Amino acid sequence: MMNRICIFGSIIIIALMIFIPTYFNVKKDHEDKLMIATKMRILDASKKCFLENVCKGEETTLKYLYDHNFLQKQFNPVTKEYYDENQVIRYIDKKIVLDFV
User: Relative to the CA of 11, which of 28, 60, 80, 91 has its CA 20 to 30 Å away?
Assistant: First the structure.
């Protein structure tokens, strides 16, 4: 009887040792991919705005992109909070620079 309890306990401990780290790795990878997708949406919209010469100068804001229908209101997919509309997007040397994502 005691032998069965030890074997059963060992199996559960081994399963948990495999499951718990795997779960957290999968969750982190998923969150990273969500952040990359959000960043790419913002980059694509701002690049389109700059290339169509709608965004003047070297800086624009998320609010400007929202107001000119280049982008729908974006939120952080991990925290579920909307990004501040006053966040600045820079266009320097034909590259888009985001400081907030």
Answer: 28
Total structural domains within the chain? 1
Q: 43-100: per-residue pLDDT in tens?
A: 999 999 999 989 988 899 999 999 999 999 999 999 999 999 999 999 988 888 888 7
Q: If you write DSSP's letter for every residue of 18-65 in order, what string do you get?
A: HHHHHHHHHHHHHHHHHHHHHHHHHHHHHHHHHHTT-S-SSEEEHHHH
Distances (CA, A) of 10 to 4, 15, 23, 24, 86: 10, 9, 20, 22, 55
Q: Let me know if 20 is exposed, middle or buried by CB neighbors in 10 A (0-12, 13-18, 19+).
A: exposed
Provide the residue range defining the domain that includes 48: 2-98
